[in-house]
Amino acid sequence: MSLKPEVRAVVLGLVCLVVLATVGEAATIIGMCISNCGQCKEMYGDYFHGQACAESCIRTQGISIPDCNNPATFNRFLKRFI
C-alpha cells in the first residue's frame, strides 16, 4: 500500500511540527533553569552554587526550578563558609 504524495507531505509536516514543538519546549525549560539559577546567584553571591543549580534543574527537565524567594527550592545549593 503506497501513500499519495499529498498524504506523505501532510504526514511529514505533522512530524516536523511535533519535533519542533518538543525542541522549543526543551529550550524554554533550559532558559528558565539558567535564568532562575542566575538570579539566585546574583542575590546570594558566593554563598550560592549556581552551576549545580542549573545542572540539577536541567537534569530534572525543569521539575526543580528554583524560586529565589522560597528557600525550600534552593537551599541544597547554598554553600557554607567557615
Task: Explain what this protein looks like in three dimensions.
By secondary structure, this protein is mainly α. Helices cover 61% and strands 0% of the residues. The mean pLDDT is 82.
Apparent shape: rod-shaped
How many E strands?
0
How helical, in percent, are the residues? 55-70%
Structural class: mainly alpha
Q: Which H/E pattern describes the elements?
A: HH
Chain oligomer state: single chain
Low-confidence stretches: none
The N- to C-terminal Cα distance equals 73 Å
- Number of separate helices: 2
How large is the share of residues in beta strands?
under 5%
Largest sheet: none
User: Mean pLDDT, nearest integer?
Assistant: 82
Radius of gyration: 20 Å
Would you summarize the structure shown here?
The protein has two helices and no strands. The protein is mainly α and 82 residues long.
Secondary-structure map:
Blueprint: H1 5-44, H2 50-59
List keywords for this structure.
82 residues; mainly alpha; 2 helices; 61% helix; 0% strand; rod-shaped
